[in-house]
Automatic annotation (TrEMBL):
Gene3D superfamilies tied to this protein: Nucleotide-binding domain of ferredoxin-NADP reductase (FNR) module (3.40.50.80), Translation factors (2.40.30.10)
PROSITE patterns hit by this protein: FAD_FR
Name used for this protein in its record: FAD-dependent oxidoreductase
InterPro entries: FAD-bd_FR_type, FNR_nucleotide-bd, MRET, OxRdtase_FAD/NAD-bd, Riboflavin_synthase-like_b-brl
GO molecular function: 2 iron, 2 sulfur cluster binding; flavin adenine dinucleotide binding; metal ion binding; oxidoreductase activity
Organism: Soehngenia longivitae
Record Pfam families: NAD_binding_1
Names of required cofactors: FAD
Domain of life where this protein originates: Bacteria
Keyword vocabulary terms for this entry: 2Fe-2S, FAD, Flavoprotein, Iron, Iron-sulfur, Metal-binding, Oxidoreductase
Stretches assigned to the FAD-binding FR-type domain: 3-109
């Protein structure tokens, strides 16, 4: 399939935590996406050559929704990161990247069912899109509970997520740094709603596997569990 190669123009870079950065672009014209989807990002020009075994593109979840009139993704950039990510930090306002068509089936489908959003670290990015969509489009929900875990007590989008939890009826937001509490909250939701609820998990492949197995051991059917994996932390 031929790449779309849609051009996007950088507006600003936001440092969300000690190692999570958001890259905010102008909203591209004639481009559509749904909350929870992702796309392929490529550079038009590289300031730092990529390593020989490094791909020229990366896939990131789209953290913004169309009503914001901005196009944003976030990623973790650590000291020993890839040259691709080093190039991200070299971007300046006005610089451009290329994106492909939006894709992915990690979509929030039934707002009438109680839903828990289980996010670890940078896995919160599609969850932000879910909640911004509900907030900005004034959607009615039954009960949506975001459980966002970070062992270091550093949370991307912290202020706006808490604001959504306070202002939007039916939405509850918990930012959790204690693993025991995180597991307890998941257990309580599963025990209360069982297969009458939906379960969305977004984190590393290992985290997704662990919590999928945990929920299934509690009797949650696999059809009620959706996962979205984040690699290359």
């Amino acid at each position: 399939m031929e790449s779309l190669n849609k051009e996007i123009v950088l507006k600003r870079i936001i440092k969300e935590t000690s190692d999570i950065y958001s890259f905010v672009f102008d909203k591209p014209k004639d481009y559509s996406w749904l909350p929870g989807q992702h796309t392929v990002f490529k550079f038009k020009e590289l300031r730092i050559p990529l390593a020989e075994d490094e791909k020229e593109h990366r896939i990131f979840s789209i953290a913004s929704v169309k009503e914001e009139d901005e196009f944003m993704f976030s990623t973790r950039v650590v000291d020993d990161c890839t040259n691709f990510k080093k190039n991200l930090l070299k971007l300046e306002p006005g610089d451009t990247m290329l994106i492909d068509k939006a894709m992915g089936k990690f979509l929030l489908e039934d707002l009438n069912k109680p839903t828990v959003l289980i996010a670890g670290g940078i896995g919160v990015t599609p969850m932000r899109a879910f909640l911004k969509d509900i907030q900005l489009n004034k959607k009615e929900v039954n009960h949506i509970k975001l459980l966002y875990s970070d062992d270091r007590n550093e949370f991307a989008y912290e202020k706006e997520l808490l604001q959504i939890g306070e202002e939007v009826k039916g939405v509850e937001v918990l930012l959790i740094s204690n693993r025991d509490q995180f597991n307890k909250e998941i257990d309580e939701f599963a025990n209360e709603y069982s297969n009458n609820g939906n379960y969305y998990i977004s984190g590393s492949p290992g985290m997704n596997k662990m919590f999928t197995e945990k929920l299934m051991s509690m009797g949650i059917e696999k059809q009620n569990i959706k996962t979205d994996s984040f690699q290359g932390y």
